[in-house]
Amino acid sequence: MRMDPINLYEYEARAKQVLPHNHWEFIEAGAMDELTTARNRSAFEALTLRPRLMRDVTDRKISTTVLGADISFPVMISPAEGHTIAHQDGECATARGAGMSHTLMMCSTTSSNSMEEIAEAATGPLWFQLSHRGYDFTEHLVKRAEAAGFRAIVLTVDAPIPTPKERDIRNRYQSPGEYGNFRELQSRASGASGGDEPPPWETLRCPPLTWQELDWLRSLTKLPLVLKGVRDGEDARKAVETGVDGILVSTHGGRRFDGDMCSIEMLPEVVAATQGKAEVYVDSGIRRGSDVLKALALGATAVAVGRPLFWGLAVNGAEGVHHMLELLREEFDRAMAYCGQHSVDQLEDRLLSIPREWGPFRTENDIADHIPLA
Amino acid sequence: MRMDPINLYEYEARAKQVLPHNHWEFIEAGAMDELTTARNRSAFEALTLRPRLMRDVTDRKISTTVLGADISFPVMISPAEGHTIAHQDGECATARGAGMSHTLMMCSTTSSNSMEEIAEAATGPLWFQLSHRGYDFTEHLVKRAEAAGFRAIVLTVDAPIPTPKERDIRNRYQSPGEYGNFRELQSRASGASGGDEPPPWETLRCPPLTWQELDWLRSLTKLPLVLKGVRDGEDARKAVETGVDGILVSTHGGRRFDGDMCSIEMLPEVVAATQGKAEVYVDSGIRRGSDVLKALALGATAVAVGRPLFWGLAVNGAEGVHHMLELLREEFDRAMAYCGQHSVDQLEDRLLSIPREWGPFRTENDIADHIPLA
Amino acid sequence: MRMDPINLYEYEARAKQVLPHNHWEFIEAGAMDELTTARNRSAFEALTLRPRLMRDVTDRKISTTVLGADISFPVMISPAEGHTIAHQDGECATARGAGMSHTLMMCSTTSSNSMEEIAEAATGPLWFQLSHRGYDFTEHLVKRAEAAGFRAIVLTVDAPIPTPKERDIRNRYQSPGEYGNFRELQSRASGASGGDEPPPWETLRCPPLTWQELDWLRSLTKLPLVLKGVRDGEDARKAVETGVDGILVSTHGGRRFDGDMCSIEMLPEVVAATQGKAEVYVDSGIRRGSDVLKALALGATAVAVGRPLFWGLAVNGAEGVHHMLELLREEFDRAMAYCGQHSVDQLEDRLLSIPREWGPFRTENDIADHIPLA
Amino acid sequence: MRMDPINLYEYEARAKQVLPHNHWEFIEAGAMDELTTARNRSAFEALTLRPRLMRDVTDRKISTTVLGADISFPVMISPAEGHTIAHQDGECATARGAGMSHTLMMCSTTSSNSMEEIAEAATGPLWFQLSHRGYDFTEHLVKRAEAAGFRAIVLTVDAPIPTPKERDIRNRYQSPGEYGNFRELQSRASGASGGDEPPPWETLRCPPLTWQELDWLRSLTKLPLVLKGVRDGEDARKAVETGVDGILVSTHGGRRFDGDMCSIEMLPEVVAATQGKAEVYVDSGIRRGSDVLKALALGATAVAVGRPLFWGLAVNGAEGVHHMLELLREEFDRAMAYCGQHSVDQLEDRLLSIPREWGPFRTENDIADHIPLA
């Protein structure tokens, strides 16, 4: 008799046992000293929820909508590169798992399966995560995503340059490199009359991605646009001004840059800056259902999980992803009950106690202004 | 020559040696990541007492009253499920131990012994902890408690839904499931003419417990009413307005919910909100007599201990409970002397130094108000 | 070739090797959980000194006076019970060591050697630490101390009741119990015509010691009076008003009470309250010469060391005490140079950076005033 | 196949493997309890950078100038005693490595190679670090440095007296003691007619170094003057008033004094005090390229590294120094990109989030003013 994992940490522990070491490390690693990765977790633990009792919370509404798509609870799947390193069925399995939990999955540009394959396997809503690698590529990808039924474009803005993780360098890690979306692309190119074969994905450099590109991007599609990685109030305000529909506050799990504030710490600044004109989501560090409520209390519409999807996949494929999500659902639902909340649409104020050292954060200007000149 | 334990931590260490592992873990575990359980302890250690010297404190009055019941010092026994997992004599032994120390015991709805058996064994005052599981049950229990001489009803409000602890899930822990109060109930039901046998306790769901239920509950009995688990100023004020007589600030030892503020941190807010119109007690994390004085300095009338009663029971039955309490008494009394206090009725101000990051706690609203929009 | 210890921590390590375990633990232990003992050290480490450079500090004056007695640097020997547990020559050796370093020693009422023996061995100034155990005893001791040439009375006020340390209880520690001062006393009593033999020291209880006793005590002697253990501004102000000459801020090394603020944390409040009308000293936790400068920057006239005297004694008798003091002197002198200070009599402002969470400390009243009633 | 180290910590780990223990410890050790050494690192990690995205930062200008000398990125080599303990080619190898990275090296008075040898090997700009050991010596050294093409004098002010490190004392560490600059000096002296041979370097005492000496020093040379070790606003202002051209905020890597604030903590106070009238640099604790950006955000023109030069040298001589610098360059450049900065000359505000407990630091005066007299 073997028991299913009972929380996300047990999924993590079992995934470590079943994954090849290098794949395990690719999933687990953060950038450089992994300070941000650790901070993503410790910051959630420093927030405390306030139990509100003596209320009838028998019927708790935890379903919500993200950009109009119904999800059964406010936890989504973050976009992440090639899922086949964790399970042979790759993103198709993840999509089935997310669908079983009636929630949304964001699919990466560099998914193992093609977006069309994923769309076919999926029963829940999908968003397409876009890594901009040139105008032609982007146009091609966006139009395919729209055609395949994806319901939003999630543009990654927090990876301006490539940043290999140090554990991967030490492991001489080789990504399997099978990118479903480019397989399609390449075969189409080959089949086209006189068409040039596109260069392999790995050789493409990130072109500059600026606010100017957003107008062009929006001209390609009617799909709503989410920016992934914004973590600054000024940037968030500018995003809203350019008509962005959602912001996913993310540190990329601490995998791209190190020594920055973590996602949940920056969430309040972004929420304040958007002034309700865009939905705000957050990922990086969510491991417990109570974290979901903490994020919602700070203004997020929903959260997303990255590494945990790989743990679920590695342990038990689509079923593992589904079960991992159900654990979060059960914990989140219990947190709602303990805090006396009956609906995610009407969370009351004062759910959180926030460490005194948290924002609004002091900057170099704040302290310079107050240094007494001797 | 074997020495008695000399403090509560030594009781804990010995209890671990003599208890079956699963029972030990059931007692020791907290909910989920056990953050609140740990915080219950670290928060007490972060408070510091202020020695006041050069006073004649030879005669120190440490006896007090709780809702009119005399207790020899301000430490009570918290309600806790089935004591027979620690000692065959169960709550009867605990009650004898508490009585030897001339203090009060709160008895759980799910005690191993029936409330009548405990009342017979007890020599000190008793309060009955009530878990609401339906109107009939509750009425039945409250009337029995009143008849058996219990002197107050302690209504648990901090367990709105069931929450198995993760260590217990891993251990596939099976509670012995002998609930004295339902044994009586079932036999009575069987004997009654035409009466239906009540369903087993484990299958009962927690019905919603709201402020409305309080009026009904008070109509059942003249006994004073204590709410166990309130940890919010607004809830505390409402409790006082509905005529509640006492509030036991509790995290349930961190056993039901995780990631909330600990009891001693929330005590000042509850005390301020009650404005002296109800007595306030606190449990969760008390391990040293100095903790008792810290709680009193923050406005508590008395404190209660939960896990330590099991340690005392496991090591030496009623004598162990008594001795465990005497250790706390001696330490508390010494703390009184070192702080120059001669009576718990007239503690002076400024006994404590409180970490700067402690309350009044900042909430999500406080920081939102101060985020500068860029 | 064996090297002398190069700092106080090395003395500590070597003392542990050469002392019987129970004696070692008696010296090292603090009360209960030893939180205050640890805090005495961590608080010093949390303070940082500010280097001031480009000054000619070739000639640094580090000698000072304490109540008119010249000492070669502001480090004294704290009073401590029976030194023979560390070295057969007991306090006589300590006194010789202190004298070699031209500093002052405070001798305990419960010294192994009699005060007259110590006075004979000493070459530096001595103060007599007084434990009040009744009017006759105290009068007898004070008059002897005055006759033996002691230059001040240090009245211990921070031990209102006996508090055995838990390590000593576990070790079933037996003090050698040879109290030089009572040997004299007992032989005198025996020789006196018709005199009753006084009861043994261990059986005496601490009588209440209050501000009233101070007037009486001052009537016995012209010697200046120091109160040891005051740690509260109000108590300090009262001490000054009653004409006390000095205050030794002390936690008794954390050996008597636990869970209180440490000495160096309370020093500023005491200094502010005395308003320069009494000298203020501090002990508990001093291990580095930089700690001495930190204490002086916060307003102390001098500091004293307790456990380190035992380490010096255990390792090398009088020479060890002397060398231990010389290490502190060298470190202190170096700290003076790095901070650009040429005289302990004219320390400049702004030598320290103090953690933001340090005093003036918040009390239960401060937070109660600011809790918003919901 | 053996991989080059991928960050400075890997250089440190490999250097430990290849260096004799005593040399390793000489390099690694800090003064006394090494609290400042540790703080130099933890303080950098407590600062967080703020990613600014959606900008075209393809072309990033990271080159800068220090006192008019062009360097390819704002990282220099700190002055450090005799490099031959890490590599036989000593400072000549370091200079070659710095030159390959097109940056500046500061050479120590007590270099293993003579300044002329280093100048010959160097391809990048050099500054001469001056330890003042008497007027004649200093004049001799400064004139030689000017003649050899050094471009600034870096006067060390943070070592007013000698302070052997405790690890070195325990190791009975013997510096190889080959000081290239005195070899030259001694041979010149020997060759001079009737000249007295100068005493060996080790026997020289530090003469007092005060603000008065600066005027004299400036009269010796037209070279710009940098003060190394200033960490106080008042001292910094005075330095600027006397016409100093640059200040290197340094704790000497925590190797000379312990228990003081670390370099990066004191940087803002120094920057504020100089009011732009002198360049400010900082060393002590820089291990990651993001640290460089943090220092620049706080007002530094450039940073310098000390221990890492030994690690690079030990692992791979000049190539190791060069590669160590290139790792920092790559990391720094990536930090610029992630923070949306295109030029070190135009860093925008609000790049950092600074812990609330950081300066302006509270001093003993600040708390004394606020202690309520009871």
Give your account of this protein's structure.
Four copies of one chain form a homotetramer. Chain A has 374 residues and is α/β, with parallel strands linked by helices. The first copy, chain A, is 42% helix and 11% strand. Chain A is built from 14 helices and twelve strands. Chain A has helices at 8-18, 21-28, 35-46, 90-100, 115-121, 135-147, 166-170, 180-191, 211-220, 233-241, 263-274, 289-297, 307-338, 364-369, and strands spanning 48-49, 64-66, 69-71, 75-77, 105-107, 126-130, 153-156, 225-228, 246-249, 279-283, 302-305, 352-353. In chain A, the strands form three sheets. Chain A has an eight-stranded parallel beta sheet with strand order 4-11-10-9-8-7-6-5. In chain A, strands 1-12 form a two-stranded antiparallel ribbon. In chain A, helix 10 links the parallel strand 8 (225-228) and strand 9. The longest helix of chain A is centred in the C-terminal third of the chain and has 32 residues, at 307-338. The N and C termini of chain A lie far apart (72 Å). The model of chain A has no long low-confidence stretch (mean pLDDT 93).
User: Assembly state here?
Assistant: homotetramer
Strand order of the largest sheet of chain A: 4-11-10-9-8-7-6-5
Number of helical segments with 4 or more residues of chain A: 14
Percent range of helical residues of chain A: 40-55%
Strand content of chain A: 5-15%
Stretches of chain A where pLDDT is under 50 for at least 5 consecutive residues are none
Shape of chain A: globular
Mean pLDDT metric of chain A: 93
Terminus-to-terminus distance of chain A: 72 Å
**Order of secondary-structure elements of chain A:** HHHEEEEHEHEHEHHHEHEHEHEHEH
From the helix content, strand content and strand pairing of chain A, which structural class follows? alpha/beta
